[in-house]
Structures are given as C-alpha cells and as structure tokens.
Amino acid sequence: MSPLRNPSLRQVDRLRRIVPWAVVGLVGAVPTTVAASMAIDLIQKRGRKTRAAPRPGTFSSTVEESELDIYTDGATLYEDMLDAIGSARESILMETFIWKNDEVGQRFIDAFNAASARGVEVHLIYDGFANLSVPSSFYHQLFEQVRVLRLPTVARRFWRGPMRHSGFNHSKILVIDDDVAFVGGFNIGSLYARHWRDTHLRSVGPGAWGLRQTIAEVWNEFHDSDEQIAWVPPAAWESKLRVSANLPIHLVYPIRSMYLNAFARARKRIWLTTPYFIPDQQLLHSLVEAAERGVDVRVMVPQESNHILGDWLSRGFFEQMINSKVTVLLYTASMIHSKVATVDGEWSTVGTANIDRLSLTFNYETNVEVIDRAFAAEMEKVFDSDSMHCVELGSEWLNRHRLTKLAERALVPMRPWL
User: Fold this and answer.
1) Keywords assigned by UniProt (predicted)?
2) Comparing C-alpha atoms, which of 346, 351, 350, 353 is closest to residue 375?
C-alpha cells in the first residue's frame, strides 16, 4: 500500500501541516484580541470625561538597609525620576511599556540625552506594540550613544519557541547607578501624571539589585555578548525585599505563585487593588476560600477603566465574589491603575502585573515583594485613602438586569485572552 494511502500516515501528514499554523494562530490570538479590544475602547469611551486623580501623598518606610517610598501621583514621581536621572554618575537602566510623545515623554528624552552627554551609560527598553501610535522620530531624538531596545511587535524568533518569543514588555523600571530603583504601574506620559491614580515604589539601597538584574536579563537575551549588561554582585542578601519577575524568554512566571502563596497564608485580611481583574479559577478560588474562612478580603477595581471590554469581563466575577463574602470596591474618582496588595499587615507587593492572564502568564512583568510590618502599615494607609473614593457593591448587584447577566456570560470565552 502506498504510504499516502495509509490512513494513519495521511493523518500524521495532515497534522504536520496543521500544527504549525495552529501554533501561529494561538500566538497571534493574544495581540489580535488586544488590538480588537483597544479599537472597541476607542469607539466607546469617546464620551467619557477625563478627571484629575486624587493624590493621597507619598508614604515612606525603611526595610532592612533599603529606604522605600510609595508614590501615588505621577507628577511627584516623574520629578523624582528626572532628578535621579539628572544625578546619575555611571549608569541608567530603564524598561517601560508606554512612552508617550508628549511634554512628559520629551522631558525623559532630554534627560537621557543629557546623562549620555556627560558620560553616563544608558540602556533603554520599551515595548513596540504599546507605542505603535508614537512616531519613530520621537525616539530617534535619543543620542546615538544611548542604547535602545524596542521590543519588537512581530519580528520575533517565533520558530525558536512561540511562548518564549512572545509577550509584551509591560514592566516599568528605572535603575540609577545600581543604587536607586523605581518600579510600579506608572507609564510615561502627561495623562498618567494628572489623571490616573497609580502606585510606584522607589528603593534606595541594596533592594535596587533585583530590579537591575531584571532589566539586564531582558536586555541580554536580545543582544550578543559584546553588547550585554555586565552582571554585578548583590550588595546583600535581602530576606524581606524580593523581586519577582515574569520572563517569557525563560518561561518563568513567578508572580502568580507569589500571589497564590500570600493568599493561602492570609489569616486576617487581603486588600488588593488592580485595574483589570480577570483572574483564572485558581486565583479566584484562593480569594473566595480566604473570605469563607473569615479573612477580610477586599478587591478594589476602577468603576470605569480605560478598557471597557476589561470592565465587562471583570463584572462577570462579581456575583460569585459577593456571594462568597469578598468585598468588591469600585473606585469612582478616576482611572485607578495600581497593581498592589497587602496581607495581614505583614506582606505587601507593588509592581506592574495585573490580575489577568496577560500579565500573569504572557507578559514581561516585575513586582517587588516586601515582608515588613512597618511597610505594610503604609500600604494600608494608601488603601484606606483610596477606599474613601469607592462604592461597595452589595446585594443590589445580584438583581442587575437579565441582559447584563447575559452579556457577562457571552464574554466568558474571552477571559483567557485578557
């Protein structure tokens, strides 16, 4: 019998043809879905008014040998970041998601150029997909000696491993002279300085090493040995201040495990803030299970985020959460973009990862984990301040219109892609 007439061999041959295209389709589904949701957002949010965000202030603490500052408004954060860039003597490393070509973005361009002109070694990483609307001429203002990696949107080595060579660069980190480091939810742009409530962390001291290492690992994977960022030893072992970084290129995604471990340990309270709450079932179960054993679980999300589709997907979880005694808080004052949590007044995290599959199983992300009571107390002050601008969902949510419930169910298949 001819090999092509053998049914089993024909099936194998067919699979060989189909599987590569199926893999390409799977990889392409995420950016395609994200692009579609962005288009929907642009159409639907035309009528939304941009409001000035509340500014709770800056909160400070010392953890071991590192001085930590919690920023809650972009204007103050950007000034301190630019001051740090201006005082850099040896090196600047930055990794960001969105870098707008506006007044704030231009100030960063000028600051990096000035640092480079005085001999500082500058390495910059930004995401190609997130900045498709920004003309390349904006970034071309950077001096030639400034080393830049635009994480490509499509031109990746997918053939070497689709999951390794995908993922958006969603981290937002700045490290100065291996000693001062910033990380959190703030992108670079005027909108975020004035109109978004976000949270960023500054670490001065040994805690900066982990953030430097995170940027170096991403940079080095995309460059030959003669262009790589050199490894430096940590100044000290940090038992209370840790960095968890999702690195798709290594198939490493520790942030999800970090959250699951913290929620499993909770005895008293879990206070979580995230702009996009689209958890997988295990994460959702961990919160529900904690609430049912008597833990005060509060989840704060924006009443209206910048992604309307994301809002609708989040709402599909609210009924189960309310029935399970999880408190759902809708932040009403502005768009809240913070990615933070604190547990039992002992454990806290500030970073770039949302509670959704894109952040936890696809993107480059970075969170700092802090195990310290004094720092957790400052984080709880921030949460209390934000709570003053929230409405709590109650039993009335369970009686929402049937068409609303139907729309939520119809969107369930999209959860794995956002």
Assistant:
1) Membrane, Transmembrane, Transmembrane helix
2) 346
- The tokens 């480091």 sit on which residue? 181
Q: Which residues face 173 on adjacent strands?
A: 95, 183
Residue 66 CA: distances (Å) to CA of 85, 207, 208: 19, 6, 8
- Identify which of 60, 46, 53 has the alpha carbon closest to the alpha carbon of residue 331: 53
DSSP bridge partners of 69:
60, 202
Under 8 Å between Cβ of 193 and 104: yes
Taking alpha carbons only, the member of 62, 24, 316, 337 closest to residue 196 is: 337
* 415 in Cβ contact with 357 (< 8 Å): yes
> Counting runs of H as helices and runs of E as strands, what totals does the chain give?
12, 20
The 10s digit of each residue's pLDDT in 161-190 is 566 667 899 999 999 999 999 999 999 999
CB 177 within 8 A of CB 119: no
Sequence-distant (≥ 6) Cβ neighbours of residue 229 within 8 angstroms: 93, 123, 215, 216, 219, 220
Is residue 290 within 8 A of residue 268, CB to CB? The reply is no
Report which residue type is found at 353. Answer: A
- What tens digit of pLDDT does each residue of 289-340 get? 999 999 999 999 999 999 888 888 888 899 999 999 999 999 999 999 999 9
The owner of tokens 């997918």 is 158
The angle subtended at Cα 106 by Cα 101 and Cα 108, nearest 5°, is 120
Cβ distance 248 to 167 under 8 Å? yes
Instruction: Give the chain's residues under pLDDT 50.
Output: 1-5, 7, 11-12, 15, 18-27, 29-31, 33-34, 37-38, 41, 159
**How far is Cα 297 from Cα 272, in angstroms, rounded to an integer?**
8
- Can you list the positions of beta strands (E) in 64-198? 66-71, 91-96, 121-127, 147-151, 173-176, 180-184, 196-197
Single pTM value for the model: 0.86
Give the Cα separation of 224 and 13 in Å (integer): 38
